[in-house]
Amino acid sequence: MPKTLHTATLYQSNLSLSSFFSPTPQTPKILINNQTIIIDEFSTRCENAFYFLTHFHTDHYQGVLKSMTVYASPLTCELLKTKSKCSTTAIPLKQPVEFARKILVTAIPANHCPGSVMFLFEDLVKKELILATGDFKFDKESAECANWEHIRAQKLYVDTTYLQAKSILISQNESIKQVVDKLKTVFKPNRTKIICQTYAVGKERIFQRIAEEFNIKFYPTSAHRLNTLKIIYKEQFDKYFVATDTDLGVLDVMYGTGKENVFKNMYNSFEKVVVIHATGWQSKFSFEQRGKLLLINTPYSEHCDYQELLNFCKMINPDEIYSIISEQDTKVIQQLTKQTGPKIDTWISKKNNINLQEINLAEQEEILKEAAKRKQRNEKLQKLDVVDISDVVDLE
Ligand SMILES: [Zn+2]
């Protein structure tokens, strides 16, 4: 049973732990009360460490071994089982759990992809709070999911995806509305095919809203995506999705410039083929008509934009702040939030910093061939206790 100690009040009433300063971790590990805690970094092998996973995106879970026990939200545990035979321990949402002696963890919804959480650790010996966000989005809606103003974490490990680009994005709702409004001008039942480009997990709000608005169902082109959708939507799956390409929606899990022409040819019998590309690296809504093909680009992200990030950091107002993206980001965010701290380090290495949007069709074919080879290799490796990482890397 979850303990009901200090952090339980986060969701009920005022909490104000006094500030305690302690040495800063400079490795992918957090040390609390002599226990090693490792988050989203499974290539670091450490005996007796506690491994936590914030969400089911490849760049966060790769390296998981069968022999590990992974702590994650209940949904992330379910999703992880599609890729790894590791043991999992589900941390219930918004309830402090004493997972090690005198250390509590609370999983707080991160508003990133389904199942994503931040981890708030509480050191009951030092009376210190440490918050690790993983990938997250702090918008107006998510601000209401916890009594954030009462969380005074001494250390913050934060997702700074759009810090350097200083991107300011329209809200997710606004972005979806623009897409739906444009679709309304072209959509004809049975004559319009709608393709949403997506990842193995994430951006569900876009295609779910389109499915509801136009009364269509989506066919996920990848078997893995089909599985993740069944796990995420459960009994609601049939309401939004079909397992074969028999309806008007398609979920495509591989980005690629020029791929639109493949869809145009594939669905030549339709009057209109619409391809929707939603990404935070897109600065503004735009569309392009190419004969029967309509391309819609919309700024949409499941990470904080620049302003949301600053709002969040200032609200938490930690003594120490570290980026989970890069050393440079740590310097910038410390300056911006007027924090001074000891030497800065990169907490999580982003191993595959590829801009998938710039991959052309030829390169994509190469990637698919590589993926097939990797899959074969992974089948052998899996027998040796290594997780399959043959997916597209989820960079958002
Ligand atoms: Zn992510």
TrEMBL record:
Its cellular-component GO annotations read: nucleus
Domain DNA repair metallo-beta-lactamase, first and last residues per copy: 260-326
Q: Which GO BP terms apply?
A: double-strand break repair via nonhomologous end joining; interstrand cross-link repair
Q: Name one GO molecular function term.
A: damaged DNA binding
- The chain's coiled-coil residues are 354-381
Q: Which InterPro entries match?
A: DRMBL (IPR011084), RibonucZ/Hydroxyglut_hydro (IPR036866)
The listed locations are: Nucleus
Q: Organism's domain of life?
A: Eukaryota
Q: What is its main location?
A: nucleus
Keywords tagged on the record: Coiled coil, DNA damage, DNA repair, Nucleus
Show the Pfam families listed in the entry: DRMBL (PF07522)
Q: Which family does it belong to?
A: Belongs to the DNA repair metallo-beta-lactamase (DRMBL) family.
The name under which this protein is listed is DNA cross-link repair protein
Lineage of producing organism: Eukaryota, Metamonada, Diplomonadida, Hexamitidae, Hexamitinae
